[in-house]
Amino acid sequence: MTDSGYSSEQQAPPPGCPAHAGAVRLGGLQYQQTPSQLYRAMRREHGPVAPVLLDGGIPAWLVLGYSEVTYVTSHDELFARDSRRWNQWEHIPQDWPLLPFVGYQPSVLFTEGEEHQRRAGVITEALEGVDQFELARDCELIADDLIARFAGSGQAELMADYAHALPMRAVVQMCGMPTSGEDTSRLVDDLRISLDASEGDDPVAAYGRVGERLRQLVKDKRAAPGPDVTSRMLTHPAGLTDEEVVQDLISVIAAAQQPTANWICNTLRLLLTDARFAVNVSGGRLSVGEALNEVLWLDTPTQNFIGRWAVRDVQLGGRQIRAGDCLVLGLAAANTDPQIWPESHVGAENAAHLSFSNGEHRCPYPAPLLADVMARTAVETLLERLPDLVLAVEPEELTWRPSIWMRGLSALPVRFTPVVQ
Q1: Is there a domain that residue 264 lies in?
Q2: Does pLDDT of 418 surpass 60?
Q3: In a domain, 116, yes or no
Q4: What is the pTM of this model?
């Protein structure tokens, strides 16, 4: 370990990937607690594009710079999404934990060009059918129901009891699934495992179970469509197959549930630990809005996204990227790039962050707006119902989940004056 807090591998470069001597192994304690310091150290040593090693020592590039991430996401003809281009597939075992992220699927995530526009258009129009006022009302009702379950006890663990549960129920309701029940609970747990596995979890198997549950949903909605996202995708004139709808639903639900849950919890952490928000936080709509946006800059739920694959040999950030190389988009690092924040001060009123990515493959409109409705309603409703909410532990006792991909707390314990129902 170096004093910068990360491990640089001093072995020979992995096969097929140049310039990976001294590559940074993605993982370790610092990713859990202080990733911003790690990104700064990597940027000092390697510049805006750093050689890294993924699980099992698989080489890739981490794009740290704001302008470099913007360039990559704006030039699909150079950095494309179809992972079958990868020059490392011969080294990837079948149980590789990142397969749910990079294994090619007939999903909107891996399509390109006109096919991507067709598939993304279906998702956009299906989401545009969601009434944002109705969604806010539904989220408030869900919030009230969740709060009622712990309000009388004077204490709660908000990560499990609130932040994860609310967007889960909202999203499955949008897609036409029951908002409760064993099937739905298993689906959400499998989504978490496939996106952010803990030790002992099997993300590949979990991803398979998610697909099976959504195939049944698509079959049900094909037979009896309703006023929901799934039915609108199935009846869209583009004529997606059932399997295409299943794969794109996985993308929609995964992108909405886990990141929104972490956005909610990270915002609550900021409001409960930062003195700037201590005054007039209860019901403070402006303060909540500022906190939500600041979290997208400084503690964005999706830290890193894998990835893009180089279409041909190309230069990026002073690095020679070879055709078929994998690039990991360092969204969190880019958001705190000193080139855009030279005085290390992030302006919370500025919305030019990359938390929803950028370019053709960014989160499709209006997904960020719907996520904002869910997160804002969750935070505001909780603070209005429990105005004396405080942390039940010291701020430094809070711990982050050990993930290089998602930024979320392991738990957020709080206490408050019990509310008699």
Answers
A1: yes
A2: yes
A3: yes
A4: 0.89
